[in-house]
Amino acid sequence: MQQSVRSGREGDVLAVVSQSGPTVTFFDAATDQHLETIEVLAEPHELCFDPAQRLLWCTTTYRSGYYHSNSGRRSELTVIDPDSRRIVEVIDIAPEHGPHGLALDAARGRLYVSVEAREDRPGGVVVIDTATRRPLGRIDTDAPGPHWFAIDPTGTTGYATNKEAPFISVVDLERGALTAKVEVPGSEGLAVSADGAHAFVAAPYGSFSTTRAQRPFTGIRVIDAGTARVVDTLPTENVVFPVHLTATGKLLVGEVRMEHDQASRLGRHAPGRLTVFSADSHERLGAVEVGHFPLTVTSSTDGRIGYVACGVSSTVHIIDLDTLHPLGRLDIAKLGEPGAHGLAYIPRPS
């Protein structure tokens, strides 16, 4: 099974961020061979591949640390040529800062980057022209910490998740305006259905300072795009951080599992779980154990292989999404690169 799922992927590449490296590492998607590692600015978080320009975008969010515990926010985006594996440009979007989530509208040549609040403005989304690699404008989301951002297939509606704010920000991308707030108890990752009818949002916010009994019901809130209301919840046992929708309509969610530890108020990390739902029927299709603290999930372009980056174990787990059997594991920590985070699957040049 491993050979059949992997066949035909020669030349495809997986890019992996090491948040504390700080690096982006490239692997052969057919063999898992380590190809090259390049250094980037601290502290890299997410990746987004633009197939039209054949460039890889990387957000650098903080000078050190992480959300709620950092030494200051960065304001740079790094643009990488994934074929030559060299940095093309570092773009400073100051006074915007804390760039994190990335969403691409390849048809219109627009890249959307979520940024944290400034003293004079709330958090928002910066719009970048992918041809010139320069900012075109900004859309306010009326929340301090928009983290992940996703757009519908038409490129007209965007959704920003907000960690502490009790709502999802819905924005009109053509008018550049906030149009709705969907009530949820804080939120993490998200994805939008292939027909644009629904958004799938991980909630509540991943705070470990509360007990499971105190925490709101964990799962994936399903938002109806037409009414901007939550119409269903796909339940999970644990808090979810990353959410990803494959080309075959499978919804991949990364559950963060904690074990009780008397020495620690927050507990300690247990192996995480990749749980899979059908985006159409909302049926739970199964689950598979992965590493500690799944932070980012992506898939191959055909939707048959899933990749889960786990920050605490600094591993990337490769999963056959037809059988939910593990295919392999990339030990980023063994390369001396702690904190696996952002992922991008890069098809070979045509």
Automatic annotation (TrEMBL):
User: Which SUPFAM superfamilies does the entry link to?
Assistant: Nitrous oxide reductase, N-terminal domain
InterPro entries associated with the record? Host-pathogen_enzymatic-act, N2O_reductase_N, WD40/YVTN_repeat-like_dom_sf
Looking at the record's lineage, which domain of life comes first?
Bacteria
| UniProt-listed PANTHER family | DIHYDRO-HEME D1 DEHYDROGENASE, PROTEIN NIRF
**What protein name is recorded for this chain?**
YncE family protein
Gene source species: Streptantibioticus rubrisoli
